[in-house]
Design brief:
The protein has eight helices and nine strands. By secondary structure, it is α/β, with parallel strands linked by helices. Helix 7 crosses helix 8. Bound molecules: adenosine-5'-triphosphate. The site of adenosine-5'-triphosphate has 10 residues, from helix 1. This is ABC-2 type transport system ATP-binding protein. Keywords: ATP-binding, Nucleotide-binding, Transport.
């Protein structure tokens, strides 16, 4: 077990929880899709897992020494540091030398070689997103948490990211991916967490969602839509 979340509620104001009964486990080598309508609480849940959001009742357990990489929904860059300096600062914070890692290969993979000495605050949105991906990979995380990773990426970078995540999972690392791209989630993820109606609607692989939604051959979007409309969670 990498991480076990058991939240009775997650809130900004305790009197009005945005989510109730969010209970799931992340195991080694799992690629989990976190799905929910706009405002359903995906980013807040992610922030709670990362310790960037405090408001919750319940518990969160992590494996000792768990290394988490985070690709945020909106890139966060320092104005006064070049791309290369971002890499070196991030590496130093993990007591690593950036150039002793596989960072060169990642820079090539995302076609960012030319950008190394430029300032990321002058990058396009997609280039900033690539920087976030490379930074998140730098400490070789056991669990990669990615929030809407495909926003702003060109089709080549999308493929590069999907290939990278596929390799990571094949090597026993885990991914929690928040996305609105249900087709991609269905194709790549082996398990899902569905949020809606201020709660966790269902959790598990597609066959579990099909069982809970009572749609034996339903696609992910069919199950999600049904559960979203009925607001049901299997007891
Ligand atoms: N800082 C905040 N203070 C109070 N409420 C907030 C804050 N940030 C988010 N919320 C509320 O929490 C709820 C969940 O927001 P969140 O951003 O987690 O949703 P989301 O599922 O990630 O949405 P989207 O798909 O649009 O990115 C929303 O009702 C939102 O208005």
């Amino acid at each position: 077990m990498l991480l076990q979340a058991d939240f009775r509620s997650i809130y900004y104001s305790p009197k009005t929880p945005i989510l109730e009964n969010v209970v799931f486990t992340i195991e080694e080598g799992q690629w989990i899709g976190l799905l929910g309508a706009n405002g359903s609480g995906k980013s807040t849940t992610i922030k709670r897992l990362l310790g960037l959001h405090e408001g919750s009742d319940g518990s969160l357990h992590q494996r000792d020494g768990l290394r988490i990489g985070y690709i945020p929904e909106r890139p966060i860059v320092y104005d006064t540091l070049t791309f290369k300096e971002h890499l070196e600062l991030c590496a130093a914070s993990f007591e690593l030398n950036a150039w002793d890692t596989s960072i060169d290969e990642l820079i090539r993979r995302f076609e960012m070689e030319e950008a190394l000495h430029r300032f990321p605050n002058e990058f396009s949105k997609g280039m900033q997103q690539k920087l976030m991906i490379i930074l998140a990979m730098l400490p070789q995380p056991d669990l990669l948490i990615v929030d809407e990773p495909f926003m702003g990426l060109d089709p080549f970078a999308n493929n590069a990211l999907l290939e990278l995540l596929t390799e990571e999972v094949a090597n026993g690392r885990s991914v929690l991916m928040c996305t609105h791209l249900v087709d991609i989630a269905e194709k790549y993820c082996d398990s899902f967490i569905l949020l809606g109606q201020n709660k966790m609607l269902a959790e598990g692989p597609l066959d579990e969602l099909q069982r809970v939604a009572n749609l034996p051959d339903g696609s992910l979007i069919d199950c999600f839509q049904t559960l979203h409309q009925t607001g049901r969670k299997d007891k």
